[in-house]
Design brief:
- InterPro entries: RND_pump_MFP.
- With 365 residues, the protein is an alpha+beta fold.
- Among the domains are: 40-51 and 288-362, conserved putative lor/sdh protein from methanococcus maripaludis s2 fold; 55-62 and 208-282, Efflux pump adaptor protein, beta barrel domain (Elongation Factor Tu (Ef-tu), domain 3, Beta Barrel), CATH 2.40.30.170; 98-172, Helix Hairpins, CATH 1.10.287.
- It has helices at residues 2-26, 99-129, 140-172, and strands at 39-45, 47-48, 55-69, 74-78, 86-87, 92-96, 175-177, 182-187, 194-195, 200-215, 226-232, 238-248, 259-265, 276-282, 290-293, 298-300, 303-309, 316-320, 322-327, 330-334, 341-345, 356-362.
- The strands form 5 sheets. A 6-stranded antiparallel barrel has the order 3-10-13-12-11-14. A 4-stranded antiparallel β-sheet has the order 2-15-20-19, with no helix packed on it. Strands 7-6-4-9 form a 4-stranded antiparallel β-sheet, with no helix packed on it.
Length: 365
Amino acid sequence: MYHNRKKTNFFYKAVLIAAFISASGCKEKRPETVAPQQKPVEAVQVVPANHNSSNYVGFYTTEHIISVSSVREGKIKNIPVHEGEIIHKDDVLVVMHNTDSKLLLAQAQNEFEEAHANTLQLSDLVKRSNGLDAIGALSTSAIKDRQSALAMARAKEKAAKESVKLAESHEQQSMIRAPEDGTLIKISTQPGALTGAGNEVAVLAAGKPEIDVELYDSNCVNIGEKAEIKITTGTSQSIITQGEVVRISPYFDDETKIRHARVLLKTPLPIPFNDSVLVNFIPEQVKNRVRVPLTALFYKQGLPYVWKVSEDQQHISEQRITIISLSGQDAVVTGLLPQQLVVSNGPDLLRHEDIVKIVQMDDHS
């Protein structure tokens, strides 16, 4: 009996060993882990930029530039104003020949006077007809005819009155007036010239004086920021005046990356409109500015970025920056700290948190 029990135990052990060997053989082999591929890049250490305020080119203008147009076609008779003249609202800028409009107005007025007189005559006749049919002095149909004639006369008088208004409007259109106060900066026609409806005859600068400034990035200045405007006169002497940023365009040119800002002036400048000036923005506090090469910049949804290298120099991440100005092959920017590493050159397809290998450290001193 002991011998049979020993055989049974040996049988169970053999089965367990076979099952273990079979299970081990069925396990899938795990693939070997492949290390992420490092992307070769060139890096540069950003350096501090001087803290001098940036100069921008601006152009003298006003809040509104108004194109004044003719509302009808005709020939220009005379122009009683001159370019550069101060204009007030409703001042006559251009006078057109109006012989036809005068004739039309006179004819319409005559027709209205005749219609009005006829209406008065028929109105009096209808009044005197009341009650005559009751005593047999006038038939009912005759009275109704007089009443119908009066209604027609009144309708004709109304139409003649509208014709007078139309002729008067046409007469007024022969005198092209200023829509608001301003300075006449351009006369686009001349006496004797033919003009059509909607054709420009003059250009008016209206509203407060402003400077239109070209910016490399609208975030480099803020609304309310002060500005210093420098003007060089014909005598080579400089005039400096103050202004304030009142508007910044949300749009920019895709190629030049230039936006526009408007600087409001307290007083007009002694220069022609569209003359260039030098604008120096005066921020409330000095910003931390650094220089980076232009090759380090890339744009995402119209905004400038750089690839910032991590402290271990193995990873990169997107860093939003603000361009203050361009200087040669560099850009003066904010959003980075001095001595930080950024990618100056590398593959076209870089992604956030990519693993990189710096193959060259550029000198950017």
